[in-house]
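User: quick one - fold this with adenosine-5'-triphosphate bound?
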Amino acid sequence: MDLLLDAVVIGVLLGCFYGAVSIGLSVSFGLLDVPHVAHPAFLVLASYGVYIINEHYGIDPLVAGLLITPLFFVLGLVAYRLYYETFEKRGTDAGVRGIAFFFGVAFIIEVLIIMQFGVDQRSVTATYIGKSWRIADMRIPYRMLVAFAVAAALTIVLTLYLSRTFMGRAIRAVAQDQEALRLMGVNPIKVKQWAFGIATAVLGIAGALLIIVAPVEPTLDRAYIGRTFCVVVMAGLGSMSGTIVAAIILGVAESIVLTSFGASWAPAISFAMLLGVLAVRPQGLFGRRS
Amino acid sequence: MALSLVISGLDAGYGAVKALRGVSLNVRGGETVALLGTNGNGKSTLMKCIAGLVRPQQGSISLDIDGTTHDLARLSAEDIVDLGVAMVPEGRRLFPRLTVLENLMLGAFRKAARRNIDENLKLAFATFPVLKERQSQLAGTMSGGQQQMLAIARALMSSPRLLLVDEPSVGLSPLLVSQTITKIGELNQKLGLTVLMAEQNFNQAIRIASRGYIIVHGEIVVAAKSVDELKGNDIVKRLYLGGAA
Ligand SMILES: Nc1ncnc2c1ncn2[C@@H]1O[C@H](COP(=O)(O)OP(=O)(O)OP(=O)(O)O)[C@@H](O)[C@H]1O
Ligand SMILES: [Mg+2]
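Assistant: Sure. Structure tokens for the protein plus adenosine-5'-triphosphate:
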């Protein structure tokens, strides 16, 4: 019983972390319909950026994550432009070819990281890494609490941005009716590009969390394709708070499976849940497609 | 405020499909003009050309405001909204998963429109009180009539001078059609909005229009100077007034 409680608590924290690394995708794929399979590769790239700053200047990884967000915002703007000009603009089969495009991007990022850093694991140092908080009989790593807090902050900030600002409302509208948006004098391509920039900027901070939670290696993105897409699809494309709830469900499921059956099963959970959701409730838990 | 819209020799289409051929039409400030035609004759295409959603292949769309002429055929949809042209599209085209208020706010997206957002919101709510009551409801969950009101109100949020209304009667019950048309007439009367309205419903359209055009297969076949002239026209009798084919 204690073991189960342990697994659930850790699972909730793990889930919040998954939420933080998925929330950008719930904008880019969830709201914009861009099949962004390079999302986890960008995430890992951000971790390496944080690693460099932390290694060279001893700056706290979260602060480093904040520092690289403008860079990632621009990276997002460029990536979307490239995708738009080469694929989306040409119409109907953009989806499938878009996936190929983003797989290519992910592959290039992996290779670049390997060329620069080799295949060894990299990690960062911070006061909250390696220590735990003892409560009752449990030991909760501080780094997981950091992940929890950052995930909550990201969700709140993004939700407010999407509901309270003119641009945020336009981002939610662009998924619903682009032509109608043009009638409001809004250029949907610019809106999508901006939103993609934001979705990518968020990865600066998510990348910091990734390397705070555990060391990273160049191909770590592969472990997160299933997880991030599972979370976003389960959430029901485009819901920010839904993303966190779905991520917590995944985190708890993984954590329970991990304690009861062993670590080798954990990576399969997200794909199993993704397939399950697609079969039973394709619109997701908080689905937008009705 | 002097305003006039003069369209001349307009050709437009979609790939190989020609939707408009040599269309000429004008609307003067303060008028309500009807663009009449049955399904697939090019009404929406013409409206979209004016709003900058469809690029004409030939011809010009001149909007004259206080002595300055703008060729809408060369401007982007964004610039056209800034000039004071707003469209209520066919089928309403609301953002169904946004609230009523959020839909209205999107109507005021442009910088110039944001400055007048409070006044325009007041105006929208005064014109359609039901929208105020339902401002936090999702647009997609409202009835057809309420959605049409929201679509009109959303267009008002950009402080338009020229309102393009594309088939406001589509999908509404006869009573609601009549109410909606009356509202559009009031906007013209009370706010001095210039209105170009595409319709299939002849009898409803002529209640508020002072004159009209008939479009058939992408060509203007009748340009009538008054409602009486429209009613007396042979083509109109054949198409709308139950005359022999
Ligand atoms: N996006 C499009 N792609 C290709 N052809 C189109 C497109 N939109 C309209 N058309 C064609 O252009 C012609 C004019 O269509 P349009 O929508 O302007 O007519 P309409 O008078 O508005 O008809 P309705 O009363 O049904 O709204 C039709 O033949 C239609 O099939
Ligand atoms: Mg039409």
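One thing worth noting: Chain A has eleven helices and two strands.
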